[in-house]
Design goal:
The protein has about 260 residues and is of the alpha/beta class. The protein has eight helices and seven strands; from the N terminus they run E-H-E-H-E-H-E-H-E-H-E-H-H-H-E. The protein has one domain (about 1-195, about 225-250): Rossmann fold. The protein has helices at about 20-30, 45-55, 70-85, 105-135, 160-180, 200, 210-215, 230-235; strands at about 10-15, 35-40, 60-65, 90, 140-145, 185-190, 250. It has a seven-stranded parallel beta sheet with strand order 3-2-1-4-5-6-7, sandwiched between helices. It comes from Anaeromicropila populeti.
Length: about 260
C-alpha cells in the first residue's frame, strides 16, 4: 500500500513554491521521493526551498517567474524539462486574495485576482499537458479554496474576486479532467480553508475577533495546522488516486458542513 504514495522518480512542478502552502507542498513532494521544479516571483524564497529539497536528497530547479506572463511560463516549463527530463505532476498553487466586494474594489484588482488565480493555471497547464499527453501520464492538482463554495459576510473576509476566481478554478478542473482523462492525465482540485501563511498572517490571524468567530463556527474548533494539506496533495499526485478524476476535496476541518 505504501508504494501507491511513493513519488520516487517523479518530477513535480509547483507554482507559488517560495512560501506558504506551495513551499510546504514542494518539500512534501521531495519527502515522497520526487524531484521538484520551483516557480515563484521571489528568487530568494525558492532558493531557500531548493536547499531544503536538496538536503532531502532530491533535485530541485528554480525559475523566477510571473505565472501570469505566457512567455515566462513557457520558458520556465522548458527549463524544468531540459534540466529534470520530464514532468509527472503539476501543482497549480499560485494565488492571491484581494479584499473587497464588487461595490468597492477596482477593476484592476479584479483582473489581478483572475490573472493570478485562473489565468496562471491555464498557462502552466497549456505548456505541461502536451508533454503529459505524449507520455500518457500526468497528475494535475489545482489549489482552489473552500471559498469557491462558501462565502462570508464578515467585512474582514469579503473577497468577491477570490470567491469567483476560485470557483472558476473548479470549472477549469472539471473541463480539463474530462478532456484529458483519455491520455492518462488526472486533474483534481483541493479546497483549503484557513491556514496561516504569508497571505493570512498579517490579516486574518491578527484579528482576534475573526479567529474567535472562525473557531466557534468550525467543527474542528481551530484553523488548519502547517502541513495539513500535504496528505491530500500527495494523494492526488500519486498513483493512489489513479481513478479519481475531476474531484474537489475540501480540507477545512468540517467548516463547510455547518
Amino acid at each position: 500500500m505504501n508504494n501507491l504514495f511513493d513519488l520516487s522518480g517523479k518530477v513535480a512542478v509547483v507554482t507559488g513554491a517560495g512560501s506558504g502552502l506551495g513551499a510546504d507542498a514542494a518539500i512534501a513532494y521531495a519527502k515522497a521521493g520526487a524531484d521538484v521544479g520551483l516557480l515563484d516571483l521571489q528568487q530568494e524564497n525558492i532558493d531557500r526551498v531548493k536547499k531544503e529539497i536538496e538536503a532531502l536528497g532530491c533535485k530541485a530547479i528554480t525559475a523566477c517567474c510571473d505565472v501570469t506572463d505566457e512567455q515566462l511560463v513557457k520558458s520556465a516549463i522548458e527549463l524544468v524539462l531540459d534540466t529534470l527530463g520530464h514532468i509527472d505532476i503539476l501543482l497549480n498553487n499560485a494565488g492571491i486574495a484581494v479584499r473587497g466586494g464588487v461595490d468597492s474594489m477596482t477593476a484592476e484588482d479584479w483582473d489581478k485576482a483572475f490573472d493570478t488565480n485562473v489565468k496562471s493555471m491555464f498557462l502552466t497547464s497549456k505548456y505541461v499537458i502536451p508533454h503529459m499527453k505524449e507520455r500518457c501520464y500526468g497528475k494535475i492538482v489545482n489549489v482552489a479554496s473552500v471559498n469557491a463554495v462558501v462565502a462570508d459576510k464578515n467585512d474582514l473576509f469579503i473577497r468577491h474576486s477570490y470567491n469567483s476566481s476560485k470557483a472558476a478554478v473548479l470549472g477549469l478542473t472539471k473541463g480539463m479532467a474530462c478532456s484529458y482523462a483519455q491520455y492518462g492525465i488526472t486533474v483534481n482540485a483541493v479546497g483549503p480553508a484557513l491556514f496561516e501563511t504569508e497571505m493570512t498572517a498579517n490579516t486574518l490571524f491578527k484579528s482576534e475577533e475573526f479567529l474567535k468567530a472562525y473557531n466557534a463556527a468550525s467543527p474542528a474548533g481551530r484553523p488548519a495546522k502547517k502541513g495539513e494539506l500535504n496528505g491530500t496533495i500527495i494523494y492526488l499526485s500519486s498513483d493512489a488516486s489513479s481513478y479519481v478524476q475531476g474531484q474537489f476535496i475540501i480540507v477545512d476541518g468540517g467548516g463547510s458542513l455547518v
